Structure formats: structure tokens, C-alpha cells
Amino acid sequence: xxxxxxxxxxxxxxxxxxxxxxxxxxxxxxxxxxxxxxxxxxxxxxxxxxxxxxxxxxxxxx
Length: 62
What we know:
0% helix
């Protein structure tokens, strides 16, 4: 069972990967919830909803 989470209270992060010297490296950085300018408004993240399986029921992955 998946928990319901609110985007503003959970820790959002970007996954970064790169290849160096033949090895794959994985790291993370926080998601910025603000813009770099006052010329545009911030667009809040949306919940990802997927249809999986033969029943075509929506599944929410947090």
C-alpha cells in the first residue's frame, strides 16, 4: 500500500548519474521550489499517476 504524501512536506530530490573512469556514480540534489527570477511564478509539482496491469486502475507512486 502506498502512503499519501503532500509535495510541500516531503523531501523532493533530483537523481543525478554520471559515468567516470568506467564507473557509474549516483548522487542527489534537492528540488528548488522557487524560481530564479520574479518574472515568472513557480509551478508546483504534480502527482505522478500511472495505469498499470490489466485492470487499467490508476496507481499513485510516491
